[in-house]
């Protein structure tokens, strides 16, 4: 299963690309979000990618992007689009045309007003829900007698400010922004170092 808890009961077909069904699935997280998937076995049909190549890519891809829902293997639509990119430059004109059509059609599907609205609503709740969850996390650590040490270094927080850090960045995984399982208490310098390589603006 995906490392983002999914709600299989919310699986809903939302459109077709090259006669292949795309589904939307909700995430079982405090920040409401939905993700788009297609059956892994349908990727070669829709994109023209070699089935063995798709199987290889799937085996090397994280469980967040290739997952099992209701007993079937699915791949996130954004991942299938990324796998498809090299074929858009293929010397084979037919393969290139198929790859370009897949890319255009999936972009249209992802740009549906209802999908954009849902993402917008989810995005608007990220910061406030994240802040509430951070406070809950600090309280939980205090109750457990663990709120006085950096969870990474074990150094006391008595002489240095500590901050709650998202293990998986909010920019990458907004649906995990309010999950305490995605948090750890770090001394400010440690936290700052964690984000030193983040892209600005």
From TrEMBL:
Keyword flag Nuclease: yes
GO molecular function: endonuclease activity
Keyword Hydrolase belongs to the record: yes
Compositionally biased region (Basic and acidic residues): 140-152, 190-201
Keyword line: Endonuclease, Hydrolase, Nuclease
Family annotation (InterPro entries): HNH_nuc (IPR003615)
Region called Disordered, residue ranges: 140-201
Protein name: HNH endonuclease
Organism, as annotated: Shewanella corallii
């Amino acid at each position: 299963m995906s490392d983002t808890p999914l709600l299989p009961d919310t699986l809903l077909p939302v459109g077709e690309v090259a006669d292949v069904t795309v589904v939307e699935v909700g995430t079982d997280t405090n920040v409401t979000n939905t993700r788009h998937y297609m059956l892994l076995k349908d990727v070669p049909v829709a994109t023209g990618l070699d089935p063995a190549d798709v199987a290889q890519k799937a085996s090397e891809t994280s469980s967040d992007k290739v997952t099992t829902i209701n007993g079937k293997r699915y791949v996130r639509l954004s991942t299938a689009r990324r796998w498809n990119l090299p074929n858009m430059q293929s010397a084979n004109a037919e393969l290139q045309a198929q790859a370009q059509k897949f890319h255009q059609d999936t972009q249209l599907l992802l740009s549906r007003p209802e999908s954009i609205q849902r993402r917008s609503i989810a995005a608007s709740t990220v910061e406030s829900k994240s802040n509430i969850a951070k406070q809950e996390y600090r309280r939980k650590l205090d109750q457990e007698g663990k709120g006085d040490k950096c969870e990474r270094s074990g150094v006391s927080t008595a002489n240095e400010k500590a901050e709650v850090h998202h293990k998986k960045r909010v920019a990458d995984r907004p649906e995990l922004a309010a999950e305490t399982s995605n948090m750890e208490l770090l001394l400010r310098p440690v936290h700052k170092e964690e984000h030193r390589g983040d892209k600005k603006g």
